[in-house]
Amino acid sequence: MAAATVAPPLELRIEDVKRSASRLRDREPLLLADVLEAAIAGGPPGDLADWLPAAWALAQHVPGSPLVHLVALALNRPEAVDWQVMRRELAEVRELLAGGADEAAPELAPTTAEALLTEDLPPREDVLGSVLPSGGLGLLAGAPKSGKTILALGLALAVCRGERFLDFATRQGPVLVLSGEGGPQLLKERLGKMAGNDRRGLDRLHLWWPEKRNLRLDKDEDRAALVQACKKREIGLLIVDPLVRHHSQDENSTRDMAALMACLAEVRQRAETAILLVHHTRKGGRDSKTGSAQEARGSSVLHGEVDAALVLERRRATGDFLLHSELRWAAEPGPLLLALDEQTLRFTVTGRVKPRARRVPEEEALRCLRQAGEVTSKAFGELLGVGQRTAQGYLAQLRTQGLAECRPGAGRGAPQLWSAAAGVGVGDEDDSDDLPF
């Protein structure tokens, strides 16, 4: 089976086109667009040798435009060009240029809250009900070998068929999976188990894997190829698995990851598709927060950008899985308990898990109390990120060990005020294990 959906951009020899295009750099871009559109109104242009340099020159006025890739494709394999897509891209470029020609700095026109509340907006559509909106950005994170790819493929198949996925409805539509690991053999084996004899929706599930190199989301020509492929197939959900295989940025750099998020936003906007990023969590450590999307590897920019963050936790001791979620558009449902059928590779929900209160190490609780000075139990809980009752338990434990003290609040009925015990300083904590809260 050949990788048919998207091919990495070819290594092109386009020096002649660029040289000819340089002579057109002073031409009015809107005029170039008019000439180019007219030349392909009825199909391929009569003379590619004249048309291609003009198209290349126009593309330079719109950085990141799919025209760059389309022109390169027309130069090498003109028979493979979808000229309807080419006309659509030219129309978009012309619209962008016409919009920017009116004024260099358009007037900012904010709306009022009153106008917004009375405006009849269309309802939000979700690819995955209450989790991932159409055109949104989602994250599926987990440790290596935790089942992320199987879960993502299950979602892809459900969306193609318009079936429920776990506890959520889906919006039926075509899906494109960029698979950076495993290749066609592993994909065929897994999808064969998932689909069985039911071939419904498989013609809407598009797959791509690298033959020579991975597609890089931070490269203009690769994004242009991806946008073209998504538009041609009307992709509603793009799954990038794993993210690390599809860019060359430094994951720990805030600047680099912010630039990558801008590239993803461009793909979402131009292709009008939602994107799900499959990503690894960092290795666990003392400060690890199991189940939190903040454990996604690299800069926190990624966590802050997504509309939905799902974290898959494989519990080898019990043989099941937990799916944690952090959502922008809906209340978080709490962790889902999942089981995996190894014959069909289907995840099913077997229950819900009540979130456990966060465990706070003794030194953290004592440090927080010292820094707060005098504080009520409610305020202390807010500082630690726990409920008031849990905070009261922490304070009682510290007082039992002589590390905290309290006094009545000022005024009748005022809550007690807590503080670190006199003589307890920065270096006075012992090295004991966490309190058994």
* CATH superfamily heading of the largest domain: P-loop containing nucleotide triphosphate hydrolases
Instruction: Using the 3D structure, state the CATH architecture of the largest domain.
Output: 3-Layer(aba) Sandwich
State the separation between the terminal residues, measured CA to CA.
56 Å
* Main CATH class of the largest domain: Alpha Beta
Major sheet attributes: 9 strands, mixed
In total, how many domains does the architecture comprise? 3
Order of helices and strands: HHHHHHEEEHEHEHEHEHEEEEHHHEE
Looking at the structure, the CATH topology of the largest domain is: Rossmann fold
- Into which percentage range does the β-strand content fall? 15-25%
Overall number of strands: 13
Number of continuous helical runs = 14
Helical percentage: 25-40%
Poorly predicted runs are 1-12, 285-289, 426-437
Rounded average pLDDT: 82
Oligomer: single chain
Reading side by side through the largest sheet, how are the strands ordered? 5-4-6-7-3-8-9-10-11
Structural class: alpha/beta
Shape: elongated
CA radius of gyration is: 28 Å
Give a quick set of tags describing it:
two-stranded antiparallel ribbon; disordered N terminus; elongated; 437 residues; Rossmann fold; Arc Repressor Mutant, subunit A; alpha/beta
Describe, in plain words, how this protein is organized in 3D.
The structure is a single chain. With 437 residues, the protein is α/β, with parallel strands linked by helices. The protein folds into three domains: 15-98, no CATH class; 126-352, Rossmann fold; 362-420, Arc Repressor Mutant, subunit A. The chain is built from 14 helices and 13 strands. It has a nine-stranded mixed sheet, with helices on both faces. Strands 1-2 form a two-stranded antiparallel sheet. The protein is elongated and about 90 Å long. The termini are far apart. Residues 1-12, 285-289 and 426-437 have low confidence and may be disordered.
